[in-house]
Amino acid sequence: MGMNVGSSSPDAEPEVMMDVNTTPLIDVMLVLLVMLIITIPIQLHTVNLDMPPPSATPPAPDPIIHTVMIDFDGTIYWDENALPNIDAVNAKMQETGVLPPSEQPEIHIKPNKLVDYGVVAAVMASAQRNNVKKMGMVGNEQYVK
C-alpha cells in the first residue's frame, strides 16, 4: 500500500497505473442518494380513521345483569343464590317484569348442558309470563363439539 515516489533508476520509464479512479463514482452516487431522499415523500406512520364527532351527551350506563344459572340437577341460582323452587323464580321474574322495558335489567339464563330441558323451559316460560323483555341464553358454546 506504499507509494513509489521516485524510481530506482533515472532512465526507467514510469509505470502505467491500472487502477480506476473511484472518486467521481462515489460523488455521483452521493448526489443521486441526496436527490432520492429529497424527492421521496415523507412517510406518516398514522392510520386515518373516520371517527364520529364528539358528543355532549354522556354514554349510557352499563345495564344491570342478573344471571340465572341452572345446575345439572335442576337447582336454579339467581345471581349465585340458590332458589328453593320455581315459585321463587316466578317471584324474581315478576319483580323484573313490573319495571318499564327500558329500565328492566338483563336476565342471562345459563343452563348446564346436563340439565333436563323442562327446567330451562320453565324458567323461560316464567320470564315470558311476567313480561321480561331483556332475556338471553348464555354459555351455548359448551354445546359445540
Write up this protein:
This protein has 145 residues and is α/β, with parallel strands linked by helices. It has a domain at 65-139: Nucleotidyltransferase, domain 5 (2-Layer Sandwich), CATH 3.30.420.270. Helices cover 29% and strands 14% of the residues. It is built from three helices and five strands, in the order αβββαβαβ. It is elongated, with a radius of gyration of 41 Å.
The secondary-structure class comes to alpha/beta
Question: What's the SSE pattern?
Answer: HEEEHEHE
Q: What is the β-strand count?
A: 5
Mean pLDDT equals 87
- Counted by DSSP, the helix tally is 3
User: What Rg do the Cα atoms give?
Assistant: 41 Å
What is the level 1 CATH name of the domain at 65-139? Alpha Beta
Q: What separation lies between the terminal Cα atoms?
A: 77 Å
Largest sheet data: 5 strands, mixed
What percent of residues are in strands? Answer: 5-15%
Summary, kept brief:
The chain has three helices and five strands; from the N terminus they run αβββαβαβ. It has 145 residues and is an alpha/beta fold. The protein has a five-stranded mixed sheet with strand order 3-2-1-4-5.
